[in-house]
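Title: Prediction job returns without error message
Component: structure pipeline
Severity: low
Priority: P3
Assignee: unassigned

Description:
Job completed but the reporter wants confirmation the result is attached to the right record. Sequence as submitted:
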Amino acid sequence: MRKALLTMVGMLWGVSVLSAVPQVRLEEPVVEELDLSPELVVKALVASLEAREVLVEDDAGYVLTTRVWGGGRRGVIAFRLYVEKGETRSLVAAVVASFPLNLSFYAEVDRAVEDLLHRWLSRFPEVAAPEDAVFPVEVRGPDEGAVVKVGDVVLGTIEEGVLVGDPFRVVLGSRVKLTVEKEGYFPRDVEVVIEESPVVVELPPLLRQHRFEVGLFSTLGQLKGAGVEARWYALPDQVFAGLREYVYGEGGGRWWMPEVVFRSQTEVVAGAYLVGGVSSAVRLWMETGIGGYLSFVEGMPFDLYYHLIGLGVEWVVRPGWALYARTGYDYAAGTGLLPQGGLFLYPKGGPALSVGVGYRW
């Protein structure tokens, strides 16, 4: 147990002497609504920790906090074990246990401490490896300023393509999950299998989060025109609100519409991506909204319609750029030239199909 715990500390904080006895600093227990003295809680903790060869010292690098509360015939005790560096604390393990308000308090505390240490070692099984199997790791990545973590523990940041921070050690044959984070980018978990020494980990690039998008599109059957649209992503690259404007000419030289009629179509939508994650090349979205046609004829009639459902598919050709196609079902409210009912491309029928290109940032 002693050797396992120390190897854990070495892996996280680069402790060079792996054979030292692990130490814990106890914060003053917080006792609420119980006739139980903090001194009694400390006494039980010290006895349980020292029985497992964990020393209680005032200058230890990791800290154990305790909170006890309850009522009636039972109490509750909560332990949180932190790794501390300067003013920063990273949670390593936590456990909550209940106990009867009688002489079994010591036994319950002992079991809770055992559970706490077990959770620690289960989360980092490599800490039980022999000292000669532990090697330093060099982490490289393309995202300047990205923060690299193991669990909740911050290892450092990427500077000039290399992780700069405390020494990081792993065990050959183990699996290590690194979390890479940077403001404005999607966090990414990278699982690495340590197979050889020296250990060099190459991090993949992070994906940028996009909040805005503009695009150009045209609608088949209404090709005498052009449209623009803009989106705002409430949830980056996933949930959006959009505004579209399409101006086109329709008819001319046909028996059902001998003259060209120009129309302005405005649409407000809200939607979300249902298929394909933010890293997928092909994604499917669904939307709904409301819109209207303003016809540039005598009286300037306005046709309100409901965009009941829309479906779209996009292909991300390069980061920030996508080609897309969308269709949907619209229902006219009967406020202008168009009769109340479903809207279809005349005279062949069928819903409108729009294709376009979009740019996000």
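Comment from assignee: result matches the submitted record. The domain at 2-128 is CATH 3.30.160.100 (Double Stranded RNA Binding Domain).
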